[in-house]
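Technical note accompanying the year-one report. For the benefit of new consortium partners, we illustrate the data format agreed upon in the data management plan: each record pairs a sequence with a C-alpha cell string. No post-processing was applied to the example shown here.
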Amino acid sequence: MNCLDLRLLLLLQLCSLIGGQRKLQRIIGGHIVGPHSAKYLVSLKRMTGSHFCGGSLVSRSWVLTAAHCKTEINQMLIVAGEYSLSTFEGTEQIFRPSRMVVHPDYSSTTKNADVMLIKQGATVKEGRLCQVSGWGYTSPIGGRTSDTLRSVRLPIVPSWKCNASSSYAGFITSNMICAGLSTGGKDACQGDSGGPLVCEGRVFGIVSWGHSCASPRYPGVYTAVANFQKWIYKTIFRHQ
C-alpha cells in the first residue's frame, strides 16, 4: 500500500533549546505513552488554549489533519512537542497557521475525503497492528479529554466487513479505512480527530468519524491517506 513514509517525510526531533541545552477528539482502552514518543503528533488548539483536534507533521511546515477540524484560521494554534495539555514542559513549540487547504471532495454530510492540510506560519525544528494516538476522550460515556497523550493499537478491518449490514451498512467509501475490535472497547474518540493512524511507521489514516466510540461491531473510521497522496504532495509543493 503506497502511503506516506514517516521515516522520510516527518522531521521528528521536536526538542527545544532551553538555556543552550537540549531538553528532552478519540483514544479508549489504550494506555498512557511515554513523553514525546509520538513526536510527529501536534495538538490543534483554540486561542484560549483548549485542545480540539490532533494532526501529524508530514513535512517541515505542513500538518495533516481531518477536514472537519477546520476553524477560523485566526482562531487556531498549532502546538508541536506537546505531552501534557495542562503542564508547560519546555518542549512545546507554538505556531500560527498561515494556510488551510481542505480537499475539494470533502463532504461535511458524509465525511468523505475528510482530509485537510495546514501550513504553519513558522517551520517546526527537526527533531499489521496500527497505532492511533491523541488527547481525546478516554470513555465513550461522559468522557473527558486526556491530560496526557495516550495511544492504542488497533487492527485494520476489511472494508467489506466494515460495510456489512450489521456495521456501517454501505456508508464506508473507498476513501475510508476502518480499524478496531469487533468486541469494541478500544478506539479513538472525540478530541482525537485529525490525528494519525500509523502502521509500520507510516501514516495510513486520519481519525475521522465513527458510531459513538469503542462500540462493538462499529470500528473507528479513518481517512485513507494513500488515496490523497498526490493531492498532499501537489498542495505542499505548490505553496512552498
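Partners are asked to follow this layout when depositing records. The chain is about 10% helix and 35% strand.
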